[in-house]
Design a protein that fits this description.
Length: about 140
């Protein structure tokens, strides 16, 4: 899932494909953590199989320290700004890449996720009826 906020921030959530890579960089020895999140699938013309949509995430300093524990398979919610850059590939072609510079990251580790069948929408929400049956002020 992905969505754009009013201030230009982007919010994504999905499963991490590979464990976070953390290192220290620069003169200030800043913490840099990078990982990728699968946010969905898109249809490819002429192909039956859908192609995964991945977002590369970059976290700095305190957020980078917190994100360093993210592992493959964790479910992540990240908020930040998209940064685009250009580079020259090995064949000399100009390429463009983009990444999410995270301002917030949280993870639900795969051991904590409930096991739900793909099309199981039969959750019991009867407990909410009593709590929310009062007259609402709006």
């Amino acid at each position: 899932m992905q969505t754009k906020c009013g201030d230009g921030s982007v919010m994504i959530c999905g499963f991490v494909g590979k464990g976070a890579e953390t290192r220290r960089v620069g003169e200030k020895n800043s913490v840099l953590t990078k990982f990728s999140v699968k946010v969905g699938d898109k249809a490819v013309k002429g192909q039956e199989k859908k192609q995964a949509i991945w977002v590369n995430c970059t976290c700095w300093n305190d957020i980078g320290k917190a994100a360093s524990v993210i592992k493959k398979g964790d479910y992540v919610l990240a908020v930040g700004k998209i940064q685009k850059s250009t580079y020259t590939d090995e064949e000399g072609h100009q390429r463009e890449s983009s990444e999410l510079i995270c301002e917030f990251v949280t993870a639900m580790f795969k051991d904590c996720l409930p096991t739900i069948e793909k099309n199981d929408c039969s959750a019991d929400v009867s407990y909410t009826e009593e709590k929310y049956n009062d007259d609402l002020p709006f």
